[in-house]
Design a protein that fits this description.
The complex is a heterodimer of chains A (277) and B (178). With 277 residues, chain A is mainly alpha-helical. Chain A contains twelve helices and no strands. In chain A, helix 1 packs across helix 2. Chain B is of the alpha+beta class and 178 residues long. Chain B folds into two domains: 37 residues; 123 residues, Cupredoxins -  blue copper proteins (Immunoglobulin-like), CATH 2.60.40. In chain B, strands 1, 2, 3, 5, 8 and 11 form a six-stranded mixed beta sheet that branches. A three-stranded mixed beta sheet of chain B has the order 4-10-9, with no helix packed on it. Chain B contains one helix and eleven strands. Classes of the chains: A mainly alpha (277), B alpha+beta (178).
């Protein structure tokens, strides 16, 4: 190593440090002074407040007066997934659930949750959250059905949770991808991929196993064809409206009648019910 | 062939200049978007209970969409949920200040409105608020731009910007698509 080369890059150690410090200073001035002050002007914020807000010293203070809403809530469902409700569904009173199910539900939905009548949905393997929400909605009138309203009238929240957990105890119908359930590739695409141009998310993005989506999303696999088609039509016509934030009403109105029939057939054809024990 | 110390130094200085230009371009882009396009970080911190969002007064279904508030301000309220916006289409007037208020009951979403400075994340538990003025009329695409689940790519809405004279609020001050 020669003495000359050491001398050659020594000034750059200083110059580089100066450049880096200059960049940091310029960035800080831009971020904490120039941009906040210029942008604050259009929001009617004075320079000092703008700098304080940029530094986080006035965090949370609204720059502009907030709009207020005097509208009163008109909820489509009164169910809120609080910790208590979720805990109850995870730790039900099993004995209570099976007694209530045998006495109240079995005559229409079957002792094992497999309904004998096409008009009544199967309950076996249904999500406890889905059953709980629907029972609650029947009781509060969020979902209109005279038979169910009179059945759930005497039930309290804990009893509904026990019944829901009881039926959820049965295994779900599992999708076996090697079993062709429809010959229409357009329906399979709608179920598995969705149609972006029509704003239709894939059915499976919520109704698939462990897919995500709202916690109250029901399992559709193996459900009654007639029931599924009737519910989609009820959502499309707005007769059923307990889907929070139009989730199903928006989708159902975009479906054609033949798509509704084919989707119902698709899901009705999936899987068989098996008891865990 | 031996490389001299001064060759290495020249090469280092050239690369440093390239880095310097890149930093300057980024600064220029930040200044341009911040001052000319009015893109700025959110200034409003407002919390809301996501579990009971549908039970809240402001974000109840019937209050979503665009409304001319009694004091004359135009507010558009939208709920982002897996995997749709409610309402899927909103109407706003051109060349008028509009306040967008968005929130979600489930997971993190985000929106941008194409060709405008509207771009925000929507985080459960918070109300995202954007003040803007739409200048171009027509149907603008508002996609979800924060991956929110399997239906994310089908999650989009329409912002219909109409001329002031076509913006006709009803008796309650509400304006909706169709």
């Amino acid at each position: 190593m020669s003495v000359e080369s050491e001398a050659e890059d020594r000034p750059w150690q200083v110059r580089a440090s100066v450049i880096v410090v200059a960049i940091v200073v310029v960035a800080a001035l831009l971020g904490f002074v120039v941009l906040p002050v210029v942008q604050g002007r259009s929001a009617g914020v004075d320079a000092f407040s703008a700098i304080c807000r940029a530094l986080g010293l006035q965090a949370g203070s609204p720059a502009v007066r907030q709009p207020v809403s005097a509208t009163r809530a008109e909820p489509v469902s009164l169910v809120a997934w609080t910790e208590e409700v979720i805990a109850r569904l995870h730790n039900p009173n099993e004995e209570n659930g099976s007694d209530l199910a045998a006495n109240i539900c079995a005559s229409c939905h079957g002792a094992d949750g497999v309904s004998p009548d096409p008009a009544f949905p199967h309950m076996a393997g249904q999500s406890a959250f889905a059953i709980y929400k629907q029972l609650h909605d029947f009781k509060n009138g969020a979902r209109g059905n005279e038979i169910m309203a009179s059945v759930v009238e005497q039930l309290d929240d804990e009893q509904m949770a026990d019944i829901a957990a009881h039926f959820a105890y049965f295994t779900k119908g599992a999708l076996d991808p090697t079993t062709p359930v429809t010959n229409d590739p357009a329906i399979v695409r709608l179920v598995e991929r969705g149609i972006t141009a029509r704003g239709l998310p894939a059915c499976a993005s919520c109704h698939g196993a462990h897919a995500g989506g709202p916690i109250e999303t029901p399992t559709l696999a193996g459900q009654r064809h007639e029931y599924l088609a009737a519910q989609l039509r009820a959502f499309a016509k707005g007769e059923r409206r307990n889907d929070i934030y139009h989730r199903m009403r928006d989708i159902a109105t975009k479906l054609t009648d033949s798509e509704i029939e084919e989707l119902a057939a698709y899901y009705a054809g999936i899987g068989l019910y098996q008891r865990i024990k | 062939m031996a490389v001299s110390e001064s060759d290495i130094l020249r090469s280092e200085v050239r690369w440093a200049m390239i880095v310097g230009v890149a930093v300057a371009v980024i600064f220029a882009a930040v200044i341009y978007t911040g001052i000319e396009l009015h893109v700025n970080p959110p200034s409003n911190i407002e919390t809301i209970d996501p579990k009971a969002l549908h039970l809240s007064n402001e974000f109840t279904e019937s209050n979503l969409g665009t409304r001319v508030e009694p004091e004359g301000r135009i507010t558009t309220r939208i709920v982002a949920t897996q995997f749709a916006f409610d309402p899927p289409c909103v109407v706003v007037p051109a060349n008028e200040p509009v306040t967008l208020r968005l929130t979600t009951p489930d997971v993190i979403h985000g929106i941008l409105v194409t060709g405008t400075n509207v771009n925000t994340m929507i985080v459960p538990g918070y109300v995202a608020q954007v003040h803007t003025v739409f200048t171009k009329t027509g149907d603008l695409l508002m996609p979800c731009h924060e991956y929110c689940g399997l239906g994310h790519s089908q999650m989009w809405a329409t912002v219909r910007v109409v001329p002031r004279e076509s913006f006709r609020p009803d008796a309650e001050g509400r304006v909706a698509c169709d």
